[in-house]
From TrEMBL:
Annotated coiled-coil segments of the chain: none
Organism, as annotated: Kitasatospora gansuensis
Record PROSITE patterns: PROKAR_LIPOPROTEIN, TPR
Name of the molecule in the record: Tetratricopeptide (TPR) repeat protein
Transmembrane residue ranges: none
Length: 430
């Protein structure tokens, strides 16, 4: 399925990425300095508009394979920040031109092609490009970022950690520390994940890096049930990059959590007008439904239904969530089962478990829910879903899972949090 979603650098695992967080954050990489490590002190500042500069360079040097590869990479980066999937077509053309000009030993094009595949959620293909790049140049960092992102999404968490650690060793910069934060968060090491993101923010060079690090700090505060602190980080992100759509999404979420419902509805409405991305549409509709605005929720749900009909390719997990809760759970099960066969990611396992539950197949859902919780350090939403599934099966751990969800983040979802309290009220000791 097509997806207008930022493919943030997301990694998982559990080896030694910040195994001693304070020391590693203070000292940089765990290994000796490599010859290719860049100096952040002497590096020239990036151009204000990287994509425009790359287009100009490719136009001035039309037979330069590196210039075309850099244009492709810049276009992928722009697609990530704006959620404009149209930029991916430009990236595809530029990278194809680069490989046409230099089919062999074209490191930049291998990296760019891997980034493009990750952005399209073609993770097995991205892994292939990442492996080619890291084999071609084992002491260059960018290939390991591609590989870390792909391995996480494919569910190979140890491999993702290994790639992240190598990235930290070679280039302890923002890209490495944001991935390290995902690794730590995946394993429930939230305090260390915050330290990694704070280091990423300190090292950030571009407004995009600053905004991404800041809004990810907001996400971590949100996941811990601290909307006031999250709101501060989201405002910081928007101050440095006003078109950071995920920071705008965070402000809508935090406004709702803090009881400013009208403000939240307004923020969601403005956001989906600009960027009708599935996650934004779904949470907007669910807030409307939870606050008695059923008629107003209809356009968001209709937009999701239309996107499902038009979608091709890899499964969008947000659209699958829409199908499970507001559409056709059986179709969600079918799509997610196919996705699970492609990649054993904890994210896919959690969504498949929930779709199976919504389809009335709780016994089949249980192992997927437990896999997701065990492999990915499930947050409040995952704990809630596991609790609901175990409650449906009459298992004794259901109540504790529901309490865990509310303890981790009592604001994680307006309808689901209310449902968790309802189930606990009916069976508080179960």
């Amino acid at each position: 399925m097509t997806r207008r979603r930022e493919i943030a650098g997301a990694v998982g695992g559990g080896l030694l990425v910040l195994a001693c967080a304070a020391g590693l954050l203070a000292l940089g990489p765990s290994g000796p300095a490599g010859p290719s490590r860049p100096s952040t002190l002497s590096a020239p500042p990036p151009p204000a508009d990287r994509l425009a500069a790359a287009r100009q360079a490719a136009g001035q040097r039309p037979t330069d394979a590196t210039a075309w590869a850099e244009l492709g990479i810049a276009a992928v980066d722009r697609a990530r920040s704006t959620l404009d999937s149209g930029q991916l077509a430009e990236a595809d053309r530029a990278l194809a031109r680069s490989l046409e000009l230099r089919p062999e030993r074209n490191y930049e094009a291998q990296v760019g092609s891997g980034q493009l595949a990750n952005a399209r959620h073609e993770f097995a293909t991205a892994k292939e490009f990442g492996l080619r790049a890291t084999t071609m140049a084992p002491d260059r960092a960018a290939g390991y970022a591609v590989l870390a992102d792909a391995e996480l999404q494919l569910g190979d968490l140890p491999a993702a950690t290994a790639a992240t650690q190598r990235l930290l060793d070679l280039a302890p910069a923002t890209a490495a520390y944001t991935r390290a934060s995902y690794d730590l968060e995946t394993h429930g090491r939230t305090a260390e994940a915050v330290l990694a993101l704070e280091r990423a923010l300190e090292l950030a060079v571009t407004p995009g890096e600053q905004a991404f690090s800041a809004h990810r700090l907001g996400d971590l505060e949100w996941e811990q049930g601290r909307p006031e602190q999250a709101e501060q980080h989201y405002r910081h992100a928007l101050a440095v990059q006003p078109d950071d759509h995920f920071a705008a999404f965070g402000l809508a979420r935090t406004a709702a959590a803090l009881g400013r419902t009208d403000e939240a509805l307004g923020r969601y409405g403005e956001l989906v007008t600009r960027v009708p991305q599935p996650q934004f549409l779904l949470e907007y509709a669910e807030l409307q439904l939870a606050t008695g605005h059923q008629a107003e929720a209809a356009p968001q749900l209709a937009a999701m239904a239309a996107e499902v009909r038009l979608s091709v390719g890899p499964v969008d997990l947000q659209l699958a969530r829409y199908l499970a809760d507001h559409g056709d759970p059986a179709e969600a099960v079918r799509l997610l089962t196919e996705e699970w066969q492609r990649r054993h990611s904890p994210l896919v396992a959690e969504e498949l478990a929930w779709a199976l539950h919504r389809a009335g197949r709780d016994q089949e859902a249980l192992p997927h829910a437990r896999f997701a919780a065990g492999a990915g350090g499930a947050g409040a939403l995952g704990a809630y879903r596991s609790g609901v599934i175990e409650h449906a099966l009459g298992l004794p751990g259901a109540a504790e899972l529901l309490r865990t969800a509310l303890r981790r983040n009592p604001y994680f979802s307006a309808p689901y949090a209310a449902h968790a309290r309802e189930l606990l009220g009916a069976n508080p000791a179960g």
